[in-house]
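fold-stage: in
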Amino acid sequence: MNGGEVFIPITMFLVCGIVVVTWLYYRSKEKQMMIEKGMSYEQMVEFLKTKRNPYTVLKMGIVIAVSGFGIGIGSYIGENYQHEGMGGIAALFIIVFIGLGFITAFYATKKYEVDNKQ
């Protein structure tokens, strides 16, 4: 390994550690603020349960799947159909399919929310 390649894993673990420590700190800070406001344990548990959106994972899954599809199509077209002036076609497909993923996720979660309210 050269000198610069050593910093890649160090930076990766450092960033992951900072993300975990920050998440733990803010979660603790949130609970501490609820205790200072006089909330009981049962009220805190109920508040934390109602705050979560059950469709967040569905939205992320749709966006990631459609983004991967866009990356695949963009890469395929970029490699197999190279013409003059088509250098950014892969980036275009990635952006368009990410947008389509967000639109699909919006309507999918809207449909599930309407179905669950009835």
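fold-stage: in (second)
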Amino acid sequence: MREPHPDITPYPDFIIDAAGFGFVAGGIIGFPYHFIKGIYNSPSGRRLAAGAQSVRINTPPLVGVSAAYLALVEIFHYTMISARKKDDFWSHVLPSFAAGACLPVGRGPRAVATTAFCCLGAATTVYTVRHFGCRVLPPPPFEDPGLTPPSVVDSIPTESVRDADLRCTQHI
């Protein structure tokens, strides 16, 4: 049996984390979208109730699909890295293509192709922003984990520092 890639965790916690993130993200996106859509498409006396009913009916399928999609992406990503023993552009983009092809299988080949290529474009965009966007931003400040943070006592100025500060302010 081959050893998994050393950069990834060899247990399925990341799949559960991805599904949980998809669940939350689907709810965060689906709730306001379907609420506004329900309010817009209802008669004037029932707008609030129609918005709530639209959320209750339409948000759970969106939440489930987004959780399943992200779980499938992580499964395919882990499988590709374990099989190829390298983590590169294709290991990030092709799992999204495969997951996008797996979800709409019951709706026919046209839906499979459309969803797969849309997911491929989205994954390429996310990969580009993640891996090349860091060159635009400044690097985070370096912190040595071996150093202990200064205590409050160290931040109190000593007598010589206070005297130097007083001398500087007297000349101004």
